[in-house]
């Protein structure tokens, strides 16, 4: 039986992190911006969490240093945390070799080549959905497709923010549903659920929002037809690994097997196509795993901080606050959504937001009898909604930079994100109390 008493000061490490990271991000983004530097990346999130962990160690003098180390080790050594770290490594290796082999560009070009004339904008939305779901990254999808979207907008004389927003919306759809996305990995492993189960719950929320968004874009295209996209070169064989990975993942095959097959296929097909060699393939895998190191270090730091905050009674303080303001499952779900949204607004990183919010979300789920699959779905979906809306997030900043516009101008046209927010609320209201 848990005999910890609510202790609000135990949450101080998170407050310290938010002040350092959010404060510096806003300062360098809007008050004193630096040329070519995104404000929220001036101070590393790892440094901010490192300082927060120091604060956590200073607290609670009833425990000595070795006892606190032991608590951190238990938090980091949790089965789901370890599995998550290994999947991050595999996903990084897969993404690295896929990009080096040219799979992402070929897959995008294949879909662009078969788009019907004059329906470029809804077509770009669909392609962004599929590419992001296959690649597992919204930022990668935006990087590939926004230059093409910008060219469509210029040639057709349509609103640049409108066209760019269609790519950003589709990218967030795929990121949310992809079974190899780091957000999906974080959401499912922290809640102890299978990716295919979270996908089924997510799909019921995301699909209606995507279909309504597509309808809006089709109606717009009928009234204001865009210029045809033209022809794009692609290697059909290089698109095959992405589609195989997507199908295997949806069939519920173990994610380690899925990613392993994807890596082997890109090695074989990329080598046969002459786009990579054995040396460049392994080098690309190393680059991909290196790109995951920050996420992995953040996961370890957050697991340590969370373990200490829980031991000190911080989680009990949050639960006591929620109990005071709600007594229903629906209220618990709303609390998870609010917690996740606040973390994403503060960190401008949906994966980090999930890692921070996940331990508390699991406690709330247990307290209110919420299905862990639903909790994982809410964590992933809400973090993707806000990550795709905040003007200082990497997604909008990169999209705006590639299109030569302000990230603020994109926000009014983010139909998918706004509709997804609506369907999240509907899904909560339809839950039994």
Question: What does this entry look like structurally?
Answer:
The chain is mostly helical. The chain has one domain (8-429). It is 77% helix and 0% strand. The protein has 21 helices and no strands. The protein has helices at residues 12-31, 45-58, 65-76, 79-101, 103-113, 120-135, 138-156, 160-177, 182-191, 195-223, 236-250, 255-273, 278-290, 293-312, 314-325, 329-347, 350-368, 372-387, 394-403, 407-410, 415-429. It starts with 11 loop residues before the first helix and ends with a helix.
Features:
433 residues, mainly alpha, 77% helix, 0% strand
Distance between the termini: 26 Å
Number of strands: 0
Please count the helical segments.
Answer: 21
Taken together, the total number of domains comes to 1
Proportion of residues in extended strands: under 5%
The helicity comes to: over 70%
**Radius of gyration using CA atoms only:** 22 Å
| H/E series | HHHHHHHHHHHHHHHHHHHHH
* Average predicted local confidence, pLDDT: 85
Major sheet size, sense and barrel closure: none
The backbone outline, from C-alpha atoms, is globular
- Low-pLDDT stretches: none
> Structural class, please?
mainly alpha
